Amino acid sequence: MKKWTAGHRAAMVSPFDALSYSGTREFRDQTVRQIVHLHRGGERLRLRLSNQFGTRPLRLGAARAGLHLGKGSVGEDTAVTFDGSPGVVVPAGGAVLTDAFELAVPDDAELAVSLYVDGPSGPCTGHPDALQTSYVTDGDTTADRDLDAPGKIFNLNWVGGVDLFRDPGAEPVVVAFGDSLTDGSGTAPNANLRYPDHLSRRLGTAVLNLGIGGNRLLRDGFGQAGLRRFRRDALSVPGLTHVIIELGINDLGLPAMFHQPKHSAAEIVEGLLSLAAQATEAGAAPILATLPPYRDVTHPGYFSAKAVPVHTEVNERLRACGLPLLDLAEVLSDPDDPGAFAPAYDQGDHLHPNGAGTAAMAAAVPL
């Protein structure tokens, strides 16, 4: 029986987060055509638009969705409405769900979402460094199939999700919740080589990526702390069956970088187990991830020899906790030099995996 299922989700971040991203750009009387990669397709869709961290109402004069052909060009497309109206005002701190619209989208396709910002947008709620090129033009060009010399952006603004009305059969609903290793930092843009993308191809189902680069488990900074956003971002996904929880390495590295109070292994493990318990209570199976290797990370101040015992203790306690485990420390470490990042998987900073590394992460997820 067909029902609404989550086809795409993106974790939203405030542009005013002091340790966030350069996403404070505002748009005025412009069309923003944003590209979203869908693991699974359908014929009836709806969009979730968020102004969660906005300081003023977001006025959208028109919206369309279509199949992305590349470089901002759109093939088959359709108008998107809001309670029958072509436009909507999304209140500051609020969100809207569009009307359902018909569009035949195959599996593993790109959806182009064109939004005309009528007036000033205010600083944008969005997802930083989405590893997907999107396009900006002046005026209302939502209905234009091809764009004339558009500007390019790399954040995903306002588009928090895409829902599909389809028969999910026995497919699991999987959320990947984490930091930059989940978000895909270090992989090639526009190539869909994040580990959730690889895992989707392995499973034959959508894997919803709710990673935020730089995100921490215990403290706000690059996005709200994992403990704060878990219920909103992960557990709110309808029909959720599994959640992979990959957080904690930034709770070691970023306090060292920014001269902030350090966290103990007990605090990190207790936080991760708390998220696992919340998932279980919500009826979803949790999979925890060990902390990846991080010796000699090139970001100044991130690696601290004093934190190595904490790193080791966290991983030992996670391996002993009895929950299903994605053992990133084992998967990504150099077998000839434990504690160091495997050269074949290293993006270059000894912290982020390249496309081969993210493929290895996906292959190691326990089924």
From TrEMBL:
One of its GO terms (molecular function) is hydrolase activity. InterPro entries: GDSL_Rv0518-like, SGNH_hydro, SGNH_hydro_sf. Residues 176-359 form the SGNH hydrolase-type esterase domain. The keyword Secreted does not apply. Pfam families: Lipase_GDSL_2. Keywords: Hydrolase. Transmembrane segments: none annotated. The keyword Iron does not apply. Gene3D superfamilies: SGNH hydrolase. This is SGNH/GDSL hydrolase family protein. It comes from Actinocorallia longicatena.
